[in-house]
C-alpha cells in the first residue's frame, strides 16, 4: 500500500523535526542581530546563505537521532542529511508553493529521478527504493522569523515556473509527536499530508480543518 510508504517516510523524518526547527530558528535570530540592515530583495541571497550556514553549524552539535550531516557544505553552503537509507537535501524554497526545479546539473537531475508511486486504485504500487531521495524545503516567516519546512519526493524534471513533478508532499511539524497527527490525503496531483487543526481556524500550512 502506498499509505504504508508514506508512513515509512514520515517515520524516518521524525528525528529531524525538533533539530531542524531549533537550528533554523536560532540561525534566523542570529542573522537578524548581525545583519539586520542587509534585508530586502537585493540581499535575499545573503540571508539565505547566512541562515543556512549557521543552521549547519548548529546542527553539527545537535542530536539528530539516526540522521547525520553529509555532503560538502563548503560547496556553496550545501546542506545534506542522511540516515543511511534516505538522503535529503535541505533547500531554501522560493515561495510557500514553489519547489526548486533541478536545473541543468546532471547530478541534481539524477537526484530528482525517484521512481513514481502509484496512488490509483487497481494499479500495482511502485515501491520506492530504500535510498529514496527527498527535498526538505525551508522558509522563514517574513514577520515572525519562524521557520517552516516542507518535505517533497521529486519524480522527475521540470523548468522554473512549470508544475513540479512530485508525488509526496507534507509539512514537517515542530515535534516528532506531531507527525502522528498528519492526515493522509491522496489526490491526482500526488500524495499530500496535512496537519489537522480546529474546524474554524485551519492551520499554519493553509490546510483545512479536521475531516470526518
Overall geometry comes to globular
The percent range for strand residues is 15-25%
Q: How many β-strand stretches?
A: 8
Order of helices and strands: HHHEEEHEEEEE
Q: What oligomeric arrangement do these chains adopt? A: single chain
How is the largest sheet built, in terms of strand order?
1-2-3-4-5-6-8-7
The radius of gyration is 17 Å
What are the low-pLDDT stretches, counting only 5+ consecutive residues below 50?
A: 120-129, 197-212
**Helix amount, in percent?**
25-40%
Count up the helices. Answer: 4
**What is the residue-averaged pLDDT?**
82
* Main sheet properties: 8 strands, mixed
Kindly report how far apart the N and C termini lie.
22 Å
Secondary structure class reads alpha+beta
Characterization of this structure:
The structure is a single chain. The chain is α+β, with helices and mostly antiparallel strands and 212 residues long. It is 25% helix and 21% strand. It contains four helices and eight strands; from the N terminus they run αααβββαβββββ. Strands 1-2-3-4-5-6-8-7 form an eight-stranded mixed sheet. A hairpin with a 2-residue loop joins strand 7 and strand 8 (190-194). The protein is globular and about 50 Å long.
